[in-house]
Amino acid sequence: MAKATVLFRILGNIESYICRTLLSVFVILLFLQIISRELFQHSLSWTEELSTYMFVWFVFFGASYAAKLSAHNRVTFQFKLLPPKVGVVMEAISDLIWVCFNCYFVYLSYDFVFHKMNLFWKSQTLGVPMKYIYLILPIAFSLMTIRILQVNYYKLIKGIDIRDPESLEVEKLMDSDNQNSKSV
Amino acid sequence: MVESSIVLILFGSFIGLLLMGAPITVALGVSALVSFLYLDENPIKFVQIAFTSVGSFPLMALPAFILAGALMEAAGISRRLVHLAESFAGPVTGGISAAAVLACMFFGAISGSGPATTAAVGMLMIPAMIKRGYDKGYASAITASAGSLGIIIPPSIPMVIFGISAIGMVAPPEAIAKFGEFQTVSIPKLFIAGFAPGLIIATTLLIMNYVSCKKRGYHGTSDGWSSDQILKAFKEGFWSILAPLVILGGIYTGFFTPTESAIVAIFYTLFVGVFIHKELKLESIFHSLETTTWLSGRVLLILFTATVFGRLLVENQIPAIVAESMLSITDNLYLIWTMIIAFLLFVGMFMETLAAIMILTPVLLPIAYSLGIDPVHFGIVVVCCLGIGFQTPPLGENLFIASGISGTSIEEISLRALPFAFASIVGVFIIAFFPDLTLFLPRLLGY
Amino acid sequence: KTFKVAVGDAAGGTQHELGKKFNEVLMEKTGGKHDAKLFMNGQLGSEQDTVNDAAIGTLDFSILAINNVTPFSPSVGALTLPYMIQSLDDAITLTQGPVGEQLVENTLRDAGVRIIGWAYSGFRVLTNSKHPVTTPADLKDVVVRVPKNEIMIDTYKAWGINATPMAWSETFTALQQGVVDGQDNPYITVYAMKFDEVQKYVTNLRYLFSIEPLIVSESVFQDQSAEDQAAILEAGKAATAHSAQFLRDQESKIKAELTEKGMVIADPADNEKEWIDLATSKVWPKYVDSIGGKDVLNNVLKSLGRDEI
Ligand code: NA
Ligand code: NA
Fold first, then answer.
1. 8-state DSSP, B23
2. Chain C: which residues have CB within 8 Å of chain B?
3. pLDDT values of chain B reduced to their tens digit, one per residue, 447 residues
4. Which residue from C72, C148, C165 is facing A121, i.e. has the nearest CB?
5. Which residue intervals of B39-186 are DSSP H helices?
6. Which residues form the TRAP C4-dicarboxylate transport system permease DctM subunit domain (chain B) (predicted)?
7. What is the distance, to the nearest Å, from the Cα of residue C265 to the centroid of all Cα atoms in its chain?
8. Which residues in B lie closer than 8 A to residue A26 (C-beta atoms)?
9. Helices B410-433 and B375-388: crossing angle, nearest 10°?
10. Cβ distance C135 to C191 under 8 Å?
């Protein structure tokens, strides 16, 4: 049981773990590049490309993580003028549209990576086939779709409202004068 | 006409989806997809745009600055900067609220985000102002308003995004023939150019603050300036004051690119936080990494869909049509500036800043070029206008944060923030009408 | 129909010139039925993206640097080896002769795009702000910016220095601030970018001749009627011829003007022999496999009347 719980916890935040690792690594990589250039007058030709591709992976996994936190900004002031039910229904419908868009995009990117992409195409300095680097798109958008469904399952069926982290931060500010809490 | 029907479909479905409460990125992506299908174009283009819109080296400045800002707060750098500003409050009328504006400037020089500036400064200064008898709403309003200095004074995440959006766009040959060569846009250039406009906006806020405090009878403390206290704040804040120098110094001397300077700032903060202030915990480093993750993911997903959206506009030559119809109304530079500023302020009320920049740059920059407006100058005005949007309802991120801190209603803060919005708008007009105010510093530094 | 043409460079360069002429002749040959709208400066995506887009059929035409075609069709890489092309005549022979036909076929097979024209931008001459450079040894204290291109980086290595790879958008500022001392680019680019304001010495290196093909999406091409296909091909040919003439006219004019503005132009010592020997002996072996083997290389050399390896 305990093992399963740990596994679920890891899976539940898998994007966060991946992203934090990617972010730390490319930040360190860029720092090493600066050190090597400024102190040893030596430019590492591969760092820029490697860190850029790590960054792309970081972004799309991060987008999926943001979906899990329900953090993608929406315009919601108009719902204040309407009965609360309307807002809930409209957001659910728009999430359904989002899911459809993502599924279509997953299909497009899968098709692109496996059928349309040129076989010779390799990254310039690393020599890795671009195919593998582009794989992030079908993977991350599939994951994101699962997250959107997950959030809506919690919200509509379980009745647990997943609020975006910014409004949570603001609420926390109202509750306490904890000076170390962060908000960006 | 194809153009007008595509404009209708693109913008119609975009606004429709926004009003339905779809995330901005979804509204952009779906409306672009619908237009692609309407034009009978193959949407497989989306895939490559998804990858290349994000996969650019200069864009890495964005997560780097977010991370640097988050770490600086956890390392106690922000707090010391605010304390330093607070120590200048002194006996003058409205001294402590002026100190809040000053704190936003200090903090703006290390952070690239408006809401982050409001939060960091507000958490210390709003309670301090209330303690000195300020009205809660007023204290919140001035902090929310000055928070936008966080994106005007460099470093600035919106400027990074403007730079990225504008770098690929060169002036049309007709404009070059008429006005001569335009300078190229670069992020360092924007950063340098933002400095003086930041001071101008701060000055207008300080003047408005003085006038309001006089009317409200907010006097300073009776015991005058305490040089001991200032000296103490300076001593404690020594390593914090170095932080903006590290960031800006590297960029201004051309030693580092903006991305690199953010990276250096990250390691500087780690060093100061762990070894000097001894406040930085492993847990808060993890938390900073996590915050950076979802913030970057959210913003840059918008970048993808906004790029598709922009590509549609470009391929159908809509920016050119907009520019033409705008110029057919008038070709008076000041009138057009006024129209653009009014439009940006309106957009800033409803729209998230970075998304607005991504969507509007491809439309507005060609107009600027055809009027002979310098692209760097234009970018600064755009950022200033949208910065005011942080303090205007219904979507005003700074308002939400200030309201959270002080426990005052959004409505009350927005009302109290009106005079400051007015002051900032006056500042924006000054910046727009006198381009040299913005451009002299980059010129002086040889950019 | 109005075809969409992606152009990598900004207005005013050789790519623009090729595109304009192409449009002009296309309109003339089709009696105004078809024309070509140029989207300058990468508005339709990076140069490499446009190859994919054209292959899929979502873009009609693209004009781009040859090294951005190489990843999709390796054999065109033969044109990007240092000192493979040593004069404009070499370039014309290679691109318009039998070797060129072979490359066009290979690209069609590998990448699904058809090369129908070529822009000639000239040799990438070396500029720097420090001192005159005529031998590889002169380079040792010069920090040179290069694009993120392995062959170029390796060529500078062969000459004894570590070049600094840097994005184009940062280059002018870096030269101005002294982060780097030199760079290489065709005269037309040096002039258009006003590098004379930040650089003083020019060395007429010939290690890379910039060639920029005009490609058409094969699926778009096949959708056209036989007459329209012929018109497209003819327009491509006419634009190519125009490009060669444009280069001849511009280069001599620009050289004179740059000299007048204070730039010091020099030829490499000993007719460039040391430069050529270092580059060909150290760089060619490394890339010979990636462009399709020794036979491909020898075939190219033979067509130029040079010694095979
Ligand atoms: Na800032
Ligand atoms: Na707003």
1. B
2. 4, 10-12, 39-46, 49, 52-53, 56-58, 167, 169-170, 172-174, 176-179
3. 456 788 899 989 999 998 998 998 999 999 999 999 999 888 998 999 999 889 888 889 889 988 998 898 889 888 888 888 888 777 777 888 898 999 999 888 888 888 888 888 888 889 888 888 889 999 999 999 999 999 999 889 899 989 988 876 777 777 888 888 788 788 888 999 999 999 999 999 999 999 998 888 887 666 666 777 788 888 888 888 888 888 888 877 777 888 888 899 999 999 999 998 888 899 999 999 998 999 889 888 988 998 888 888 888 888 778 878 888 888 888 999 999 999 999 988 877 788 889 888 888 898 898 889 999 999 999 999 999 988 887 778 888 888 888 888 888 898 999 999 999 999 999 999 999 999 999 888 776
4. C72
5. 45-54, 61-74, 77-87, 95-108, 114-131, 136-146, 149-152, 157-167, 173-179
6. 11-436
7. 22
8. 60
9. 160
10. no
Contact B43 A61 (CB under 8 A): no
Contacts of B198 (CB under 8 A, 6+ apart): B105, B108, B149, B152, B153, B154
**CA-to-CA separations, A147 to B101, B305, C124, in angstroms, rounded:** 41, 19, 51
CB distance C150–A125 less than 8 Å? yes
- For β-strands C201-203 and C264-266, DSSP reports them as parallel
Question: What are B387's two structure tokens?
Answer: 């910065």
Instruction: Find the length of chain C.
Output: 309
**Alpha carbon B176 to chain centroid, angstroms:** 29
Q: Is A164 exposed, middle or buried (0-12, 13-18, 19+ CB in 10 A)?
A: middle
- The two tokens of residue C15 are 């790519």
C82 with C208: CB under 8 angstroms? yes
Q: Rounded to the nearest whole angstrom, what is the distance from the C-alpha of residue B214 to the centroid of ligand 1?
A: 29
- β-bridge partners, C264: C201
C286 in contact with chain A, both atoms CB, cutoff 8 A: no
DSSP letters along chain C, please?
A: -EEEEEESSPTTSHHHHHHHHHHHHHHHHTTTS-EEEEE-TTTT--HHHHHHHHHHTS-SEEE--GGGTTTTSGGGGGGGSTTS--SHHHHHHHHHSHHHHHHHHHHHHHHSEEEEEEEEEEEEEEEESSS---SGGGGGG--EEE-S-HHHHHHHHHTT---EE--HHHHHHHHHHTS--EEEEEHHHHHHTTGGGT--EEE---S-EEEEEEEEEHHHHHTS-HHHHHHHHHHHHHHHHHHHHHHHHHHHHHHHHHHHTT-EEEPPGGGGHHHHHHHHHHHHHHHTTTTT-HHHHHHHHHHTT----
**Residue of B343, B119, B99, B330 whose CA lies nearest to B225:** B99
The pTM for the full model equals: 0.85
Instruction: Identify any residues that bridge with C119 across adjacent strands, giving them in sequence order.
Output: C212
Q: Encoding tokens for residue C268?
A: 């490499």
β-pair type (C35-39, C2-7)? parallel
**What is d(CA B154, CA B148) in angstroms, rounded to the nearest whole number?**
11
Contact between A113 and A131 (Cβ < 8 Å): yes
Residues of A in contact with C110 (CB under 8 A): 118, 120
The separation between the first and the last C-alpha atoms of chain C, rounded to the nearest angstrom, is 48
d(CA B329, CA B325): 7
Domain edges within chain A: 2-167
- The minimal CB distance from C173 to the residues B41, B167, B188 is found for B188
In this complex, how many residue pairs, one in chain A and one in chain C, have their CB atoms less than 8 Å apart?
45
**Residue B415 C-alpha to ligand 1 middle, in angstroms?**
26
Say whether the ipTM exceeds 0.90: no
d(CA A63, CA B295): 8
What distance in Å separates the CA atoms of residue B32 and residue B13, rounded to the nearest whole number? 9
Q: Rounded to an integer, what distance in angstroms lies between the CA atom of residue C189 and that of residue A23? A: 37
Neighbours of ion ligand 1 (CB under 5 A): B 108, 112, 150, 153, 156
Q: How far apart are CA B162 and CA B362, in angstroms?
A: 10
CB B154 within 8 A of CB B195: yes
